[in-house]
Amino acid sequence: MVLPPSRDLRVPGEPPFSGIQTRKQSEATMNILEGIYSRRSIRNFTDKPVEQRDVLEIIKAGTWAPSGLNNQPWRFVIIRSSGVRNSLARLTRYGTIVKNAPICIAVFVDRDAMYDNAKDHQAMGACIQNMLLAIHALGLGAVWLGEILKNAEAVRLLLELPDTNELMAVVALGHPASRDQQSQRKDISEVILNEC
Amino acid sequence: MVLPPSRDLRVPGEPPFSGIQTRKQSEATMNILEGIYSRRSIRNFTDKPVEQRDVLEIIKAGTWAPSGLNNQPWRFVIIRSSGVRNSLARLTRYGTIVKNAPICIAVFVDRDAMYDNAKDHQAMGACIQNMLLAIHALGLGAVWLGEILKNAEAVRLLLELPDTNELMAVVALGHPASRDQQSQRKDISEVILNEC
Fold this sequence. Notes:
Chain A has helices at about 30-40, 50-65, 80-90, 95-100, 115-135, 150-160, 190; strands at about 75-80, 105-110, 140-145, 165-175, 190-195. The first copy, chain A, is globular and about 55 Å long. With about 200 residues, chain A is an alpha+beta fold.
């Protein structure tokens, strides 16, 4: 593949968040297709802390998803506190993961920014997938928790957010304790309905 | 970043589709974060045809998105025919793009595979984002068309699909006529609601 020679990869208008620089792109060299195919859900983590610059890079990657009308409806809460994670853990069947992950990122949609349920939920999925790929590229691992949405309101109240924010997912992340996860997909011949 | 030394990147149980091998991963070397930040919507294409192996790689990348319960609700129709693209073009305000793109991929959700509207729509968004990133990694360009969903039923009938399939997006793709597209995102400080 030949890339255009002079593409500018800088993100326009990007000041550092809270004075902390996000990670330089050159540090994460996994290629896109490799990353897409080798990413797995990681549910067990080591005790090694996750650097703040990585957390911010992950969120930044999420925000570079496309959204309808570029409405960017995504909002994030970074949860490191073990107290908060323990409370969160009681709201899901997968509490052990939430308790043991060094960080959870709760991903919300801002209802005031929405314009179409299906399209906005698609945009949120694109955002979360960017986050998972960025996590993988940074040598970290994560699992996308959806079951906790049954307690979306309780999560919102726990995090003391206004009711314009609706929980879309919790991403639990950290340094993977192992990397032997397997996954399966249908062959593409099963999902291509037609060609014309 | 240090990758685990012996990770097996092969996709398990992957026979070629229609006897055609998909592209080798080593040919697409753009790294993940670079790809996420430099991807832009491409609406103008050259006449150069898109190779079938690239189309299949793009769909395969889509299928490696995560989905709730691994239900893989995505289905695809590959549209090369100019006759079909011209009919499709009449169903959207962005008909010129559909007419001039060498290929459109219509992305459907299989209602019979769904289990939760919001979560399945998120999975579809993750799938489409994987496709857009794969397209970008392969040196191609694309735009995610959502406005055409106002005519989702007409698209389904045009493509002669059973009513269990619901249109989620049309991805128009090809070789970019130019690469000077700009895009903007909120700074992450605007979308991080809290940190605890």
